[in-house]
Amino acid sequence: MASVLRVALVGYGYWGPNYARVLNELADTELVAICEVDPGKLRRAKSRHSRTLAHTDIRDVLEDKSIEAVIVSTPPSTHYELARLFLESGRHVLLEKPMALNVGHCEELGELAERKGLVLMVGYTFLYNAGIRKMKECIGSSDFGRTYYLHSTRTNLGPVRHDVNAVWDLAPHDISIFNYLLDQQPSWASAVGSRILQSGREDVSFITLGYPDGVVGNIHVSWADPNKVREVVAVGSRRRVVFDDLKPLEQVRIFEKGVSVGDPMPETFGEFKLLVRDGDIISPKVEAREPLKEQCNDFVASIFGNRKPFSDAALGTRITRALIAVDASMRENGAPKEVI
Fold first, then answer.
1. What is the mean pLDDT of the chain?
2. Which single residue of 200, 232, 280, 302 could bond 309 by disulfide (Cβ 3.0 to 4.6 Å)?
3. What are phi and psi of 247, to 5 degrees?
4. Structural domain of residue 103, as residue ranges?
5. CATH number at residue 270
6. In total, how many domains does the chain have?
């Protein structure tokens, strides 16, 4: 393989322009082709990347034997078929989240990549976010104490997807973050949703995930909230850690406050001994690095190093399992569903 990876980008919609920019900024990648079926989006791609080949037909990318890797940034309903085509043609694939809409397709793609010796990566950018990694460092410290629960909020006015609901569009980020912070997969899910915007799909959802040791994670996602929020909170017996993606100067804050149970036996009726801990609010230094660039660097390094990326096919499959349980619970008005 050459020292520079020749990459094609399929999809120039919401994330596509960011991928194109990053690929042009990396020293060891060359963006050689962009494929987009929408004429307006393709014109924008050509105006920004005049030296890159522009295609409307996926077959043009498949037939270009010089292309070694493909980034698929298209609607979720197309992920499985496109990833399968490119893996079968011998190309490494970075596939936007969610990996696929059912577990069988996820497993098939993972097995195909394994059989052909190719890198298959799923784009969970928050796992490459320095703030989230700092949050994990804080939670892993003995100063944090026992983990009680996690909760996250991911709201904004759209953009409304036309092939999946808000859960499949937004919650994959939060599930991936929770799993990463806890080093565990949820065992059950309960969720309710609402179709406020009359789009035929849930645009608002409240999700609860059950993890081992009694830890729960709560997620609120919405396309219909005018207040944009991107926040993850971890509450422990000694500290509370908050990640706010919209506050780059204080992206992570540590509240040295907590409460734990002392003597579990009450001295009088309705009275419990609580050990209350109070302290400062700390904003630790978080290195300013672009998560998408870190993710693409891992993709390229995995290809050159013949190794699995951090956000690999197995991780993508686990998150799809959780999403399916969430969807099943919403259909039954919050009935808990096992994550299988």
1. 94
2. 302
3. -120, 80
4. 5-126+292-312
5. 3.30.360.10
6. 2
